[in-house]
Specification:
CATH class of the largest domain: Mainly Beta
Number of helices: 10
Order of helices and strands: EEEEEEEEEEEEHEHHHHHHHHH
Strand content: 25-35%
CATH architecture of the largest domain: Sandwich
Shape: globular
Radius of gyration: 20 Å
CATH topology of the largest domain: Jelly Rolls
Strand order of the largest sheet: 2-3-4-5-12-7-10-13
Oligomer: single chain
């Protein structure tokens, strides 16, 4: 089990909590551990498998604080912040900053991190076991890497994990494939070039916008609301997002929404009305018309064709 303590040595005890009552971002099928008291809130979603572990860690501290994290193993670990900013002080090596849009690989089981006052943060991690590498034909693991820009394809796989629509054994199979896909994408991706005219803070803000958009495909948050949530305006958000991702906000939102719809149509038996609701469409006819306009066939026909009926 992950252990977290203050720099003073005082432990922040994490206790099992009812997942069904949790309303924030989560890993489907995970076990939730939390610690809530005056001045801080910590939630850890842990999906444990004998070959890998996926975690989603959410922190909020009312005052600036340094915490010590002790991982349960020394497996190679990928760390990728989805929101918030923190400075990491590894036991060995130099201090470095991890912001949304960056990631790295590490094998250090104990490290300190500085969390700014009043800022919440969400961090996604995967622990890869030596057996996992052996099972996929890796003679050796990819090894540690310095923090750098995250490839867009790798980020999309993380979002896929957080939107997993499957249950039980199918979910296990889905995660196992996604974990291997992340490793492959990390290995073959070319270096990411970010726009030089934007500051690291502006780039991190666009990655946070991307994360919020990817996890709110049901239409519960609009683009103007998103801009206000991030402390910017609609015009700046649109302009900077396109600079970072090379595609406009609205086209990207529709692209994501339709890809998720196709996954639900092909891989699940959810009725069309439920898929329409999950995708933010007010009415079933509106959903069918939008799908037909984009793919030249109805959702039902697409489902039948993909399933070979």
């Amino acid at each position: 089990m992950i252990r977290i303590s203050l720099s003073s040595g005082e432990p922040l005890h994490l206790k099992p909590s009812p997942n069904r009552k949790f309303t924030g971002l989560r890993i489907p099928g995970s076990i939730l551990y939390s610690s809530d008291r005056a001045g801080h809130s910590i939630s850890l979603h842990i999906y444990q498998h004998r070959l890998y572990t996926i975690t989603l860690r959410q922190f909020y501290f009312a005052k600036a604080v340094q915490i010590i994290t002790a991982e349960p193993d020394n497996w190679l670990r990928m760390e990728l912040p989805l929101s918030g900013m923190l400075s990491v002080l590894p036991k060995e090596g130099k201090v470095f900053q991890l912001d949304p849009g960056t990631y790295h690989l590490t094998d250090q089981p104990v490290f300190a991190s500085n969390h700014p006052e009043g800022m919440s943060g969400i961090y996604f991690t995967i622990h890869f076991s030596p057996e996992l590498f052996a099972g996929i034909g890796y003679d050796q693991s990819p090894g540690i890497s310095l923090p750098g820009p995250v490839p867009r394809e790798l980020l999309e796989i993380v979002y896929d994990i957080l939107k997993c629509p499957f249950q039980e054994s199918l979910r296990d199979f889905y995660y196992a494939n996604k974990v291997r896909e992340i490793l492959f994408t990390h290995t073959v991706s070319l270096p990411v070039v970010l726009p030089g005219e934007l500051s690291p803070e502006q780039i991190a803000q666009m990655y946070e916008a991307d994360r919020i958009m990817a996890n709110n495909l049901d239409g519960k948050i609009t683009i103007p609301e998103l801009a206000r949530k991030l402390g910017t305006n609609f015009v700046t958000l649109k302009k900077n997002y396109e600079k970072v991702f090379g595609i406009g906000l609205f086209p990207r939102l529709m692209q994501r929404k339709m890809e998720h719809i196709k996954l639900l149509l092909e891989k699940t038996d959810k009725p069309l009305k439920e898929i329409a609701d999950l995708s933010g469409y007010q009415t079933l006819p509106g959903f069918i018309n939008a799908f037909r306009k984009r793919f030249k066939m109805t959702p039902n026909d697409w489902r039948k064709e993909r399933r070979g009926f």
